[in-house]
Amino acid sequence: MTDALSYFTAKLEHETDASDVYAAQRGGDRFVLVDVRSDEAWAQGHAVGAIHLPHQEITARAAAELDRDVDVVVYCWSPGCNGGTRAAIEFAKLGYRVREMIGGFEYWAREGYAVENAHGPLTRTYDPLVAVVRS
Question: Full-prediction pTM beyond 0.90?
Fold first, then answer.
């Protein structure tokens, strides 16, 4: 049986969350945030600073579009979606250092981080169930 320290240490090597990704963006960390949802989902709204690479296209496009020496963070819709996990597998198969942003786009938006769509920035809202709401 895996001990708790080993399990949780390994878990954090392969996943992150919206607040840590946002802090890494603000801190200037070198990584690429990849939205792996459909074209329609991307157009509806996505995290500011993300690029769009649907999970079905990773194998065909990643090598030409992403530097293998830069860490990749993937996200899909929400905790109820496994597209981010499928995308992380594809990036890992290609040799990328990859982590999944748990909570996906849902928690990015609910925590009030910058979101935009095909027409520009969207109003930021903070969900008091998942983020501190400051006036």
Answer: yes
Q: What are phi and psi of 39, to 5 degrees?
A: -60, -40
pLDDT of 48-63, one tens digit each?
Answer: 999 999 999 999 999 9
- With left for phi above 0 and alpha for psi between -120 and 50, is residue 16 left, alpha or beta? beta
Amino acid residing at 52: H
CA-to-CA distance for 119 and 31, rounded, in angstroms? 25
Q: Is 37 exposed, middle or buried (0-12, 13-18, 19+ CB in 10 A)?
A: buried
Hey, how many other C-beta atoms are within 10 angstroms of the C-beta on 20? 16
